[in-house]
Structures are given as structure tokens and as C-alpha cells.
Amino acid sequence: MTFSLTAKCPDTGMFGMVISSSSPAVAARCVHLRARVGAVASQNITDPVLGQIGLDLLARGLSATEVRDALVASTPFIAYRQLVVLDARGRMTAYSGSNTLGIHATHEGEGAIAAGNMLANTGVPAAMIQAYAAGAGKPFAERLLSALAAGLEQGGEAGPVHSAGICVVRDVSWPIVDLRVDWSDRPIAALRELWAVYEPQLEAYVDRARDPARAPGFGVAGDDRI
Question: Whole-prediction pTM value?
């Protein structure tokens, strides 16, 4: 029901994930990132608790493989889960339980890993990695969005997708990007449109938290800042 790409930016150290699914609100359930710690995707028949536990284990210093093995060994119903783990050093791994739905596959690249289930074909994760790699030198979020679009172009899910999301963490304790399209007939295109609106304002929202006096306004009624 899902295809995703998780990556660590080689230039900035940011962690990011993009994801899409036929189910509603996929990013709310499957995406788990923590600045300076790493990322966990909890997919297939989703248990968000696995993402939370996985991040806590990464924060304790366990490697991606050690976190995966710990989750597999300790989790009831693990056969129904698909996991991706990326640690602070950029090491990555995945797990697809024996009850993972439909066609499923994973693919690793330089600093990135893609995974999916109920796919149209096994080439979807590889196409996502290829698109991410081809975007080297471009802004991190753009590379992530290009990878998501490439997954859809390769076939995406076996059926139509309806939700999509992008999340990026950097040097503050909250995501600097956390955009979601929770139900749409064109969620990936809508997500890119949403990013085009948000991207010019991103740093201002970080400034608003760090130093409100420095943050510009954006023409909102009642806000006379320029």
C-alpha cells in the first residue's frame, strides 16, 4: 500500500523521507525522523509504535542493523510489517515480513533507501533511487520529491495513490518540512505544488522560533511586517 524513499543529505546532514499510498494520511502513520539521530519508516500493515521505538534505539547509539534486528526480535506480528532504518552515520537496512502485501521490494543507493509494498512492479524502488541520485547537487527536498514522482512514473502502487508526504529534519528539534496531502486523486503533484508555496517561507518559519524579531511577514492580513 506504500512506496517511500528515505535519505541522509550528504551536504547538510539532514534526514528526509517521501512517501505515497493508496490509503489516506500515509505520512502521519509511517514517517518517523529525528534530527541528528536518523529515520525509520514503518510500512505495510502499519504500526507507528515501531517508528517511535526505532528512533529511541537509534538515539541510544544502535546501528541501523541493530535497530532492525531488535525490532524484528521483539515485535508481535512482525511478519506483517515492512521497515526501513537509516542511522546517523548513513548506514541503512530494511525488513519485509513474510506477510508483506503484494509485490514488494527495496533498493539501496548512495545515502538513500527506497521500499514499497503492493507495488505495480519490483522496479519502483530502483527507479526512485535512480532519480534521487540523478538530482545530486540540487536542494535536498527537490531530490526527494523527484524520487517520489519517479516511483509513480515507474508504476507506483498496483492501484491509484491518494496520499503523499515529505518530511525533513535538520538542526532543530522539529521538522523544518512536514507537508502532507492526506486525500487526493493526484497527491504527488499536489505535494509538489504545496512545496512550491512553502519553500520560499521555510527559513522564515525557523527564524520565527529562534528570533521572532528577525522573521519577515508574508502579506497576511493584520501583519504589517515586510
Answer: 0.95
